[in-house]
Specification:
The chain has 243 residues and is of the alpha/beta class. The protein has 6 helices and 16 strands. The longest helix is centred in the first third of the chain and has 17 residues, at 11-27. The structure holds ribulose-5-phosphate. Residues 16, 37-42, 93-96, 106-112, 115 line the site of ribulose-5-phosphate.
C-alpha cells in the first residue's frame, strides 16, 4: 500500500506525495498535536513529516490506525494515544472520494472509525487527495460501513431496508475479506461495502444508517474537512477551501 520514498513512483504516487508535501508546508507548525491519517497518501505525509522531525520540528502525532502508528514510530515521530492529549490541532488524512462541498467517502483502508474519531477531536481536518479522488457526486467508490460482529447478518438486513428507500443507484452489500477471511478492523469489527453508484443525499443516508444499532460508523465524512489539497501528477498541488 505504501511505497518507500526511494522507490520508483507511479504518476499517482507523485500526485499523492505532492498533496502531502503541500499540506505539511501550508498547515503544520511547531508544537502541533497532529492526527495522522491512514492510507498511502497519509503514509507519504508521515514519511515527509518524519524528515522534518529529524530536522528539528517538534510535533506529536496521534495515529488513525495501528498501521500508521507503527510507521510513524519506525520513522521516529513521537506517537501518543488520543486519550493522552487534550485535543488535536490538525488532522491530515486522505480520502477515497471528495465532492465540491468537501463531503468524503473514507474507509478504503478499513480505518474509518478511528479516522472519524481523530478528525472529530481536531480543530481542523484537511484532506489530501490526488485528482482521481475528486468527484461531482459521491458513490462510485463503495461506501464502507463498520459493523459489530454480533448479529452482523441481522444488521445487514436492516442496512438493506435502509438502502431500499435511499436515493442511490445501486444496492449491493458485500462483506470485506482479507486473505480469505472476513476483515477485522483495528477495533475488531467487520466492514460491509455498499455498492451505491450514486449517493443522492449523503446526509439522509448517514442519518438512516447511523440509526441501525449494529452500525458503529459509516465512511461518510460530512462537514468534517475544512479544505482539500489536490496533488497533480506533475508534482504540483493546489488548495481548495471549504464553503
Ligand atoms: C483509509 C482511508 C484512506 O484515507 C483512503 O482509503 C485513501 O487511501 P489512499 O491515500 O491510499 O488513496 O480512508 O481508511
Amino acid at each position: 500500500m505504501t511505497a518507500p520514498l526511494t522507490a520508483p513512483m507511479t504518476r499517482q504516487d507523485t500526485a499523492k506525495r505532492a498533496a502531502a508535501a503541500f499540506a505539511l508546508d501550508r498547515f503544520v507548525e511547531p508544537g502541533m498535536r497532529l492526527g495522522l491519517g491512514s492510507g498511502s497518501t497519509s503514509h507519504w505525509m508521515v514519511r515527509l513529516l518524519a524528515e522534518r522531525v529529524r530536522g528539528g520540528l517538534d510535533v506529536v502525532g496521534v495515529a488513525t490506525s495501528a498501521g500508521t502508528a507503527e510507521l510513524a514510530r519506525e520513522e521516529g515521530i513521537r506517537v501518543l494515544e488520543l486519550d493522552e492529549v487534550d485535543g488535536l490541532d490538525l488532522t491530515l488524512d486522505g480520502a477515497d472520494e471528495i465532492d465540491p462541498e468537501l463531503r468524503m467517502i473514507k474507509g478504503g483502508g478499513a480505518c474509518l472509525l478511528w479516522e472519524k474519531i481523530v478528525a472529530s477531536a481536531s480543530e481542523r481536518m484537511i484532506a489530501m487527495v490526488d485528482e482521481s479522488k475528486t468527484v461531482a457526486t459521491l458513490g462510485a467508490f463503495p461506501l464502507p460501513i463498520e459493523v459489530i460482529r454480533f448479529g452482523w447478518r441481522s444488521t445487514r438486513r436492516l442496512v438493506e431496508t435502509v438502502l431500499a428507500e435511499a436515493d442511490v443507484d445501486g444496492r449491493t452489500i458485500s462483506q470485506r475479506h482479507l486473505a480469505g477471511d472476513p476483515l477485522l478492523t483495528d477495533s475488531g469489527h467487520y466492514i460491509l461495502d455498499l455498492g451505491l453508484g450514486r449517493i443522492g443525499d449523503p446526509e439522509a443516508l448517514e442519518r438512516q444508517l447511523r440509526r441501525i444499532p449494529g452500525v458503529v460508523e459509516t465512511g461518510l465524512f460530512l462537514g468534517i474537512a475544512r479544505a482539500m489539497v489536490i496533488g497533480r501528477e506533475d508534482g504540483t498541488a493546489r488548495l481548495v477551501e471549504g464553503p
